[in-house]
Amino acid sequence: MQNFDFYNPTRICFGEGQIAKLADLVPQDAKVLILLGGSSARRNGTLEEVKQALGERPQFEFDGIEPNPTYETLMKAVAFIKENDVDFLLAVGGGSVIDGTKFVAAAAHYDGEPWEILQTFGAKVMSAMPFGSVLTLPATGSEMNSGSVVTRKSLKAKLPFMSPHVFPQFSVLDPVKTYTLPKRQIANGVVDAFVHTTEQYLTYPVGAMVQDRYAESLLKTLIEVGPKALATPEDYNVRANLMWTATCALNGVIGAGVPHDWATHMIGHELTALHDIDHARTLAIVLPSLLRHTKAEKKAKLLQYAERVWDITEGDDDARIDAAIEKTQAFFESLEIGTHLSDYELDESHLDALVDQLETHGMVALGEHQKIDLDASRAILKGAL
Ligand code: NZQ
Ligand code: ZN
């Protein structure tokens, strides 16, 4: 196992009715800005429940954080905070609202042009406003981690940043609040959590037995509850397991002391930035092709994955690895998520621009061995046509 330094200060309040706890979680004297996405939290009563729990505290609302939150919108929230002396932020929504709130929290304290936060991947963030979240979409793990991904529309750039200053102080996870999610978002959440797990598991062995078995249990849980979450939306236990699995997939525990890949995410971000494809769908396009491309480097873990996650024990090494990749792809397809670029009306003529974007963003040595250069990324995208 590799050395690690694990830190995660986020308090999780999990279960039906937990939104009421905001009454104690948010400081009594706080002047609160509630940050929201489109209209889902307003429509389904979540916002009303939040406001009731906040009681008499002065509170404002900031609407309109988009899926794939934009710098342009988020800077309006930063201006609002400064004008109104807001001192606590509360994100109510999915990963985009929480990611957006992290950026706003850091940008409000930042000396200089806040886009630098993304350009330096968070290294220059020295402090941030305190904030909490109420999660309504199980997928990203943003509710219990220190990462955020922000898009600058004018540059067609989607970049991540990380900082220990942007862990939420708390996150409320009420599975009932996910009942109103459209099927498309549930399917996206299953795939996003699945790929977060593989990015930290399908690399090379370092003898990290707990991290490996924990990752395998998350993958198996997703394979089991994913289809059920689509078929029976109001099954509390299914939604509870999906929600907690997605959180655990990216809260740092399975990633401590093991190598990380993240090439699928970085290539996927360019697909979203240029072609507006949902985050999880970009991962479903890239991952199967990336696994085929890196079969040799990932051989030991792919064989372990085949046996422990998909129960594949027959055939030679190559056949077992191929079968595991095929099962992975079929799983994504079973959730009605297309795994080819052609499913999104993209063809070979779109590859140059995607590779150029990777170069512009410095994504020239990706993966656990930093061996995925621009040629490899092109080959992976080509393999996904
Ligand atoms: O905007 P509203 O009206 O709220 O609707 C949202 C949005 O249209 C809707 N929704 C959310 N909760 C709902 C609901 N609809 C009905 N009922 C509810 N309970 O769902 C749509 C998608 O929401 P979004 O927040 O964009 O989805 P998700 O949680 O998948 O977040 C995706 C973003 O997270 C980033 C992605 O890149 C993408 O920008 N990621 C963040 C990560 C992190 N911070 O660690 C890691 C991930 O890899 C990911 O990159
Ligand atoms: Zn993701």
TrEMBL record:
One of its GO terms (cellular component) is cytosol. GO terms for molecular function: alcohol dehydrogenase (NADP+) activity; butanol dehydrogenase (NAD+) activity; metal ion binding; methylglyoxal reductase (NADPH) (acetol producing) activity. Gene3D superfamilies: 3.40.50.1970, Dehydroquinate synthase-like - alpha domain. Residues 9-175 form the Alcohol dehydrogenase iron-type/glycerol dehydrogenase GldA domain. Keywords: Oxidoreductase. Pfam families: ADH_Fe_C (PF25137), Fe-ADH (PF00465). Residues 187-358 form the Fe-containing alcohol dehydrogenase-like C-terminal domain. Its cofactor is Fe cation. It comes from the Bacteria. The keyword Oxidoreductase applies. Belongs to the iron-containing alcohol dehydrogenase family. This is Iron-containing alcohol dehydrogenase. It comes from Parashewanella curva.
